[in-house]
């Protein structure tokens, strides 16, 4: 189960504060998201 989750791409949208009407959308895997969060946490 955990393996399946890590390989699943999830959709995300971020809102650019300078352009409220424009959403930047894409997809990311759980592994990429996890790595990104760790990088932010360790700064």
Could you give a short description of this structure?
The protein is α+β, with helices and mostly antiparallel strands and 43 residues long. The protein is built from two helices and two strands.
C-alpha Rg (nearest Å) = 13 Å
The strand line-up of the biggest sheet is 1-2
Helix content estimate: 40-55%
| Secondary-structure content class | alpha+beta
Notes on the structure:
The mean pLDDT is 73. The longest helix has 13 residues, at 30-42. The chain has a two-stranded antiparallel ribbon. It has one domain (2-42). It has helices spanning 2-6, 30-42; strands spanning 9-15, 23-29. It is an alpha+beta fold.
Question: Can you give keywords for this protein?
Answer:
two-stranded antiparallel ribbon; alpha+beta; 2 strands; 43 residues; 2 helices
Write the layout of secondary structure elements.
Layout lengths: L1 H5 L2 E7 L7 E7 H13 L1
Antiparallel strand pairs: 1-2
């Amino acid at each position: 189960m955990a393996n399946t989750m890590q390989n699943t791409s999830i959709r995300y949208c971020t809102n650019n504060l300078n352009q409220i009407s424009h959403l930047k959308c894409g997809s990311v895997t759980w592994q990429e998201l996890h790595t990104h969060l760790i990088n932010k946490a360790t700064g």
